[in-house]
């Protein structure tokens, strides 16, 4: 497989959203389709806007994976957070959607953020959003994206990289890459996509001669 890793470009966005849906099934976990589409868009854009090292993987010109990462030492500022907040306010208040399901989702987001902030009070370098398409998994594409992000952190003197994941999701993948569990935390948000799943925070200590 001929894999090319390059920086994210705006034209890549739709495909990234498609991969997020494929990974977490936003179109199936919400009964209200407008809410599902809104949650998918805001979740994908939140990952993109949180990152300043946003990478995509191409195989024969087709986008097959991406990693949106935040490097605290990189001078590039993440962009688009204000526009995202306005989009969220407009969508949840003015779009026609099931209010009970919407409120359940917003409560899950709020409690997720609160519980996460208790174990992660300071902003760290982080893998914000990371997906490889189902039919391209297991070909080392994820590892190539991760190593490129890790190397950008190493080159700029970052000491640790965090990632929020799920024990029933990619936690064993991160352990294989050398991450260690920091803490579990409760998340009704994870529960939507991974029933009985356990949200957790992992950390990678960046060092030379990896
Ligand atoms: C996690 C993910 C990005 C890895 O991408 P990938 O391209 O399949 O990873 P690689 O091919 O580089 O995997 C390297 C090794 O890890 C293993 N691996 C991949 N995903 C794994 C997972 N979820 N759990 C455990 N091991 C995993 C591979 O089998 C491979 O093992 P091998 O070297 O013995 O063959 C991909 O599985 C994915 O998109 N998962 C769904 C979304 C997700 O959970 N993202 C992370 C959110 S925090």
Q: What small-molecule ligands were found?
A: coenzyme A
Order of helices and strands: EHHHEEHHEHEHEHE
The average pLDDT value, as a whole number, equals 95
Based on DSSP secondary structure assignment, what is the total number of beta strands? 7
- What's the helix count? 8
Beta-strand content = 15-25%
What's the alpha carbon Rg, rounded to whole Å? 17 Å
Look at the helices and sheets and give the structural class. alpha+beta
What separation lies between the terminal Cα atoms? 25 Å
**Looking across the biggest beta sheet, what order are the strands in?**
1-2-3-4-5-7-6
In short, what is this structure?
The chain has 210 residues and is α+β, with helices and mostly antiparallel strands. 46% of the residues lie in helices and 23% in strands. Strand 4, helix 6 and strand 5 form a beta-alpha-beta unit.
Describe the structure.
By secondary structure, the chain is of the alpha+beta class. It is 46% helix and 23% strand. Strands 1-2-3-4-5-7-6 form a seven-stranded mixed beta sheet, sandwiched between helices. α6 links the parallel β4 (125-132) and β5 (160-166). α3 (33-50) runs antiparallel to α4. The longest helix has 21 residues, at 99-119. The protein is globular. The two termini are 25 Å apart. It binds coenzyme A.
